[in-house]
Amino acid sequence: MVNNSYPKLRALDHQWIEHDGQPAMLLQDRLGIGPRGVVVPRLLVPMLALCDGTRSPSQIQTALGLEWGLSLPMATVEGVLSHLDEALLLENARFAERYRQALESYRTAPSRPAILAGSSYPSDPRELARLLDSYLAEAAPQRNGRRALSHEPRGLICPHIDYDRGGPVYAQVWESAREALRAADTFIVLGTDHAGEPGALTLTRQSFQTPLGILATDRAAVDAVADTMGPRAAFASELNHRVEHSLELALVWLRHLTGDRPIRILPVLCGSFHPFTQGNGRPSDVTSWRAAADALRELAQRDRTMVIAAADLAHMGPAFGDPQPMELAERASLYRADQESLSTVCRGDEEGFLDMLAEERDRRKVCGLPPIYLALSILGEVVGEVVDYAICPAPGDSAVSIAGVLLTNPSNPGRQGESD
After folding, report:
1. Contacts of 64 (CB under 8 A, 6+ apart)
2. Integer angstrom CA distances of residue 301 from 154, 278, 304, 409
3. Residues 170-203 pLDDT 10s
4. Considering 173, 282, 329, 413, which has the largest number of Cβ atoms within 10 A of its Cβ?
5. Residue 118: pLDDT above 70?
6. 321-379, pLDDT tens digit by residue?
7. Predicted TM-score of the model (pTM)
8. What are phi and psi for residue 313, nearest 5 degrees?
9. Is the pLDDT of residue 37 over 60?
10. pLDDT in tens, 199-237
């Protein structure tokens, strides 16, 4: 018998797959605490929706019969629940203890490991540097062909897609900001938290490891922001940092472009804006979000500080739940919509950016909305320049769009650039 009076399934990633020739659902733990994947046969998938913490195993059995017409023996229901429990996919005491252990291990480690090294990019420092330099070499001529900026960038927006697809766009924006990066010593780095709660901002005191060296986190700055938010809110989902890829993929480029010199980072993960794109309030309605934004805004105004938003744009097509494959006409429509959105970003209009996506109920599924919105909010008066844009292929005739954007403040005479 499962030691779970009212079983509740955790928030998990899921997708339909074919298993042993039959449709099945693959459940994956976003936090990497449970196994890599648990396969649930299609017949048993309705059980998952019923595991919401309001039903006992016997009530689940009854609901399956009444709502789904499934007559399952109690032994089968309990067997499925036991399997989910063993895989740490249920919210219960067993999972809570494993979570506590994982969080303690993360916090006491020397630094946050580079979890994508050796898979998404080379783990060997020389091989990684050669790869990034090859992208930068291709970007340099285009950068030289653009007009010189009248002011150095105070911030930038880069992708967080894999380098195989997004490498040229990464290179264009990082190469264009090269001089500004050399002049800065503190970087507020904002990334999409793909597992984050709506409106949440999540801090960490951990430094970040890359094959090219460690990026030291400014713990004093983290604590200053956490004090305004309240530590409970600031670190409630800190373990998300362990597995989230958005910051890591940007920080590798930051470490490469800044070389060996000592710099400090303030890493922030930004949770979903889904409620806000559905017309339910604004980010400023969340007390901890508003407090953090105010504290980050003060930090962002300091000299030698830059803001980086690691943010992809649209996710369209069957791979992301859309019925329509991304054919030529759909890609053209996506391009037009993205350019309109980027125009609001380049006006420094974070509210207009959010309003545009809310008007369409985030049909494009712009996962980079939270970090882009926060970057514009804390930078204040800025204008942007799109240095590159791409629509990248995704499985199943789908697509992900990305952009590189430089953000400058022409009214600030203290941040002059190459033309001065």
Report:
1. 46, 47, 50, 70, 71, 72, 77
2. 9, 32, 9, 11
3. 999 999 999 999 999 999 999 999 999 999 999 9
4. 173
5. yes
6. 899 999 999 999 999 999 999 999 999 999 999 999 999 999 999 999 999 999 999 99
7. 0.91
8. -105, -115
9. yes
10. 999 999 999 999 999 999 999 999 999 999 999 999 999
Q: Which two tokens stand for residue 48?
A: 């998952």
313, two tokens: 């744009």
For residue 327, count other CB atoms closer than 10 A to its CB: 10
Please say whether the beta carbons of 189 and 268 come within 8 A.
Answer: yes
Distance CA 82, CA 26 (A): 17
Question: How would DSSP label each residue in 270-282?
Answer: E---HHHHTTS--
Alpha-carbon span 356 to 354, nearest angstrom: 5
Residues of the chain within CATH 3.90.930 domain(s) are 13-105
Residues 208 and 251 sit within 8 Å (Cβ to Cβ): yes
CATH class in words for 13-105: alpha beta
Cross-strand bridge partners of residue 9: 90
Classify residue 198 as left (phi > 0), alpha (psi -120 to 50) or beta.
beta
Residue 81 CB partners (closer than 8 Å, separation 6+): 2, 4, 7, 51, 57, 60, 90
* Cβ contact 228:290 at 8 Å: no
- Is the per-residue pLDDT at 417 higher than 50? no
- CB–CB of 369/273 below 8 Å? yes
Coil, strand or helix at 1: coil
> Looking at residue 222, what is its pLDDT?
98
Residue 42 has pLDDT above 70, yes or no: yes
> Tell me, what amino acid is at 64?
L
Phi and psi, residue 239, nearest 5°: -65, -20
Class for the domain spanning 112-408: alpha beta
Q: State the DSSP H helix or E strand holding residue 81, giving kind and residue range, or none if neither.
A: helix 74-86
In the chain, CATH 3.40.830.10 covers 112-408
Assess whether pLDDT exceeds 60 at residue 145. Answer: no
User: What is the residue type of 54?
Assistant: T
